[in-house]
Amino acid sequence: MRSMKGEVLLNLPAEKAWQMYRDNDVVSKINPELLSRAEYVQGDGGPGTLRLFKLGPAVRSYVEESVEKIEKVETGRSVSYDVVGGELRNMYNPYKVTFSFTPVEGKEKEMCIAEWKAEYEPLTPAIPPPDKARDAALQFLQCFDKFQLSY
To answer: Which residues form the Bet v I/Major latex protein domain (predicted)?
Structure first.
């Protein structure tokens, strides 16, 4: 299976970034141009939960929505899911993503590293790696800093 990842440094504690990512109301307001709505369509956010992401106009030409089945949750640290619906599923199978939030040593109360990691297999050789998905996810994570000031 192929993989790619990226990370951004955030000026907020890992626990705060984690809470923001897991809260559908908050995550839907961080940057509506990238992510217009998130909702748990089945379950409560634990393993087996289905979460729907409706993407915003900035990425809608690539992906309009993504249905994700949560596979693993490390509370306060990471969530891993398998994409089970939406356009990404039509390009890759499997397509598994992990978002993690790791405190910066010595600055645990102030900063964290937010990481996006994907494991995927293109359905055909002509399908490119999911660079656009990575770039959109990292751009979205960078918005946590600005948003948390008003949150």
So the answer is: 3-151
